[in-house]
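At this stage, I wrote out one protein's amino acid sequence and its C-alpha cells, and that material follows here:
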Amino acid sequence: MVSTPPVRDRPSTPVAAPPRSAASARSVRSVLFAVAALELAAAGCKRHPPVTRPASVAVVPPAPAAPIPAAAPVDRPRRIKRVVIISEDGLRPDALMNVLPPVHAEIMKHAAFSLQARTIRRASTLPSHAAMLSGFDVKQHGLYWNSWKPERGYIQVPTIFDAAEQSGMGAAAFVGKKKLEHIAHPGSVDVFSRSGYFCKKVVEEASQYLVDKRPQIEFIHFSDPDDLGHSDGWMSNAQLEAVRHTDRCLRTLLDATAAAGLDRDTLFIISADHGGHGHNHSGKIKEDRLIPWIAWGPGVRAGHRIVSPISTVDTAATTLWALGYPPTPGAIGRPVLEAFDPETIAASGPSRTGTLKGFLKPPAKSSDEQSSSSLTRSPPTSF
C-alpha cells in the first residue's frame, strides 16, 4: 500500500515573493519538481509488515454455489371465461358485406374474421349446425336429415354442450328452429328454448339468461336470413333487410352483456350454418357453402382478416380450446389460433383433463342419406 505524503500547512497570510528573473524562476521550479519526485519514490518504497493469521483460524475454500431451482410454471389467469356462439342461419358473407349493418361493422373493427369460411358439403341447417357444435362431419355425427324427427334420437358424438355440462360449468341453447334439439343430448344443456321463430324473442330470452345464469357456453340461433332467403331469394332486398334485423338483435345481446360486465371475459363467435342461392341451398356450389366467421372478445386480434382456411367444424374446436378443454378424440375441427394474440395463445389451451364419455359410435348410413364428400381445407375456389 502506498502512503500519502504529508500535506504541508499553508500560511494563513499570503507572503509576497521577491522578484526573480525568468531564468531563476524556471530553475527553482525544476528543483521543486525533482524534490517532489524523490519524496514520492521514497514513499512507494516503504513496506508494511506482513499480516499473519491467527493459528486457530482455518482458511475454508468457498462452497460451490447451489443450483438455481427451475421456475415453477406460471398459472396464468384465463382471460376467456365463457363463449357465446351466434349463428345467423343462411347468412352469406357477400350479403353481410353488401349491407354491412352498423353493429357487425363495429364488431369487425375489433375482431378477427374471415369471409371465406366454409360449411360442410351437407349445407343444411341441422347437419351443418351439428358439425359447428361438435367438430365432426355428417358421417360421424349422424344427423344427415334436416327436420325434427324425435324417433331418430340425438347426435352420435360429443358436443361442446357436453363438455360444459360434464365439468359443471353450464350450457344453454336458444334457437328459432325446433329441429336443432337433435344436437342437444338430454341433460347436456340446462336450458333448450325456442321462444320464437325470428331473432327478436330469441335474443331477448338468451340475453336475460346469459346475464342471470352466466353459463360457460351459450348458443344463439337467428332464423331470419334463411327464412327470407327461401321465401324471397338469397340476396333479395327482403333477405338483406333480414340481415339488418339480425344486426339489431345482435345489438340487444351486446348491450345486455356490456351492462352486466360480461363482455370483458366473453368470446363471441358469429357465423352461419350455410349460404344459399336462388331460393335454396344444396351445398353443390360455393354460394351455398361460404359463410362468415367472426371472433370477438378478450385476446382476439383486432381488425385482423384471417387468411388460414376455416371450416364450420373449427367453431367447436376453437370453443373447447379457448375454455381449456382438451380436443374431442376423433373430431376433425381445429382451433383457429390465427384469430388470437400470442399472450392468449400462451395462456389458453387444454388445462382440463378427461374424455367426454357415454356416446355411441355413429350409426351406419341410412338408405335415405345422400352421399357427401369429405370435408377438405382447400381454398374456396375448389368448389
Residues 102 and 247 are 7 Å apart (CA to CA). Residues 82-148+156-356 form a domain with the Alkaline Phosphatase, subunit A fold (CATH 3.40.720.10). The beta strands are 82-88, 112-118, 171-174, 191-193, 217-222, 266-271, 290-296, 304-305. The longest helix spans residues 22-44.
